[in-house]
Amino acid sequence: MRQLVLLALVGLGAQLVDGSLGMAYGVTSTTLLLAIGTSPAAASATVHLAEIGTTLASGIAHWRFGNVDWKVVAKIGIPGAIGAFAGATFLSSLSTETAEPVMSVLLLTLGLYVLFRFTTFGLPRHNLGKPLRKRFLGPLGLIAGFVDSTGGGGWGPVGTPAILASGRLEPRKTIGSIDTSEFLVALVSSLGFLFGLGSQGINFSWVLALLIGGVIAAPIAAWLVRLIPPRVLGSAVGGVIILTNTRTLLRSDWIDASDAVRYPIYAVIYAVWAAALIYSIRQYRANRDQERELVAETHAKA
Hints:
Elements: H1 2-21, H2 25-35, H3 40-64, H4 70-92, H5 96-121, H6 134-151, H7 155-166, H8 171-197, H9 204-224, H10 230-251, H11 259-301
Helix pairs in contact: 1-2, 1-8, 1-9, 2-3, 2-10, 3-8, 3-9, 4-6, 4-8, 5-10, 5-11, 6-7, 7-8, 10-11
Family: Belongs to the 4-toluene sulfonate uptake permease (TSUP) (TC 2.A.102) family.
Pfam family, one: TauE
Subcellular location: Cell membrane; Membrane
């Protein structure tokens, strides 16, 4: 019972971050399931089954708050579903010993990208309002869907920063559209896992616990997306993903590092993570103050 409550809280926390940042539900939940001994394919399948409900609830909430661009949802969601099915059937064919470190490397790479991208650059706003083309969203969806299935998460970490980097869609609509289109990815990915695995290794009580937590958090996150600075959340989530998957890799058969090696590495990660958070907060405040000064000057001139 305690484990189910913990999973529900993880689902709630992961969805709060995912719904307000456009990423991290899958990688956060999958990382926890791997840490308690679930096989990689079963962990990813469990998370994606839960995501069918959480992404539906999140999409509805974002739509009600006006955070969804339906053209973007269609252009990226359909290729994403194709990539997700391919990734699910690929991961289902790998052995646990092979898949776990492979998945950890993938998640670690995503974590490094998220931390670097949001800490260093924040959220670009150039080209805002220009249309997003199929030739950009199609391949992006295909790759993000494949990564999402094989990594247990990745739809948001790949899709959200790429669209934000284009500067063509405002942040809240980027996050809302990515979260809404993820419903297609989760649905098709789950079918792929069930096709490849059956129900082997999937604990449906865990699915329900993650689902309950995620559904509760979905409307709150859709509201918070207007209030919480994505730059700071990006740095925070990136650090969590990096730390957790570095730990998994260092303990894997690939490396099997001793305590004398692991703990100094953890210390360095904590230090870099703390510095990234401090920098993100300071940059966010500096940019906010600059915008306020610009608005004040504009009003004064008027």
